[in-house]
Amino acid sequence: MKFTHSELLDKIKTIFDGEVNSDVKTLDTYSRDASLLEVKPELVLFPKDSNDIQKLVKFVGENKNDNPALSITARAAGTCMSGGALNESIILDITKHMSGMKEVTHEEATVLPGTFYRDFEEETLKHGAILPCFTASKNLNTVGGMVANNSAGEKTLAYGKTEDYVKELKVIFADGNEYVTKQLNKEELERKISQGDYEGNIYKNLWNLIQENEHAIKYAKPDVSKNSAGYYLWNVWNGNTFDINKLITGSQGTLGIITEIKFRLVRVKKKSKLFVIFLRKLDHLSELVNEILPFKPESLESYDDSTMKLAIKFLPAMIKRMKIHHFFKLMFGFLPEVGMMITGGIPKLILLVEFSDDDEKEIDKKMYDLQKKVAHFGLKTRVSKSEEESSKYWTIRRES
What we know:
- By secondary structure, the protein is of the alpha+beta class.
- The protein is built from 17 helices and 17 strands.
- The protein folds into 3 domains: about 5-95, Uridine Diphospho-n-acetylenolpyruvylglucosamine Reductase, domain 2, CATH 3.30.43; about 100-265, Uridine Diphospho-n-acetylenolpyruvylglucosamine Reductase, domain 3; about 270-400, 2-Layer Sandwich (Alpha-Beta Plaits).
C-alpha cells in the first residue's frame, strides 16, 4: 500500500511511543545541519527507547516496496558538515530521550548514543579517565555522532580515532532487531556464522567478502595516518580477531542504528602545557612539523589568520556564551599576544604543540629541547606555564 503523508503519519503514531512531528517549524529546523545543505524531511521522530526504533525499522522494511522513498536517518547533534543528518523521509532524533550514562569506571563507559560529549566527559573525569578522540566541537556533538563519523580531534596524533575506543555496540540492523556487536576470535566467529539466522548471515557474508577479496581490500586501504571516510573493510579481520564494529564505526548510520555504546577510556595525565609557535610565513611549515613530531606531542593543532580575524569578528557571540569571569580571564591572558600583533600584525598561522605527562619536569624538558631544535627558524614562540594559560589558545581553536 502506497501511503499519503497523513496515512504515513497515522500509521507510525500507532506503533511509536515517542513524539511524531510534521509541523512546519520542526521540519524547517531539521532541514539543516552544520553543512551548507538544506533537505526537508517528511517526518521528525523522537524515539523513547530502542523498542521504538526496532518497531520503526520493521515498519519501513515491510512497506519499502510500495513506498521506495521511505527511509530513516538517525540524527544526533547535527554537527557533521557533510549533510549526513539530512533526509527527505524520516529523521530520527535520538538526543531527546536516548541519552545518559549507564555505567562508568576508570577503564570503560557504557552510554546511550544521544549523550552529548560534554556531559559524557564530565562523568568520566570523575573517574580520572577520558575518551581522547573528542573533536574541536566537543561542547556540541554527541557520542553517537562520534561513532557514526569515526571522529578524531586534537589528541588523535597520540591516541587515534573513535574506532580505536569502541569496545561494544548495540545496533539495530535492517531486520529491525537489536544485536550486540563486539570483537570475536576465530572460534567465536565460527559459532556466530553457524547460527544460520539473520545475524549469522551478516557475519557469514562479510567473512566471505573479506576472504574472497583479500588482495583488493588490502590494496584499497589508503596510505594515510588518519582516515574518517568510512567502510574500513581492511580493519575488520586482522588475522586473529574479527570486529564488525570497525565497519560500523564511520558508516554514518547506513549499516544500522546504534542504540548503546561501550567505550574504552584512557587515564588523564596530571600535567599539560602548550608550546605555541607564531608563523609570519608558511615557507618552512613542513620542515618545522617534521622537526616537532619526533618529540611525540600529545596534540599538534593550528589556526590561521582568517580564523583569528573571525574570532575577533564574532567576539560578542563568544562573550554571550562565556561566564563573565572566563571572558575577562581570556582577554587579560591575550594581552601579550595583542602587543605582538600591534607591532607585527596577525600571524599567518599559529601552531599549538601540546605535551602531557604525570611528571611536569618531563614536559619542561621536552619544551626546552624543542625550543632549541626550532630556534634556527627564527620564529616567535611562547611556552604556557599552566593549563589555565593554555586554555586561551584552545578557546580560539575550538570555537572556530
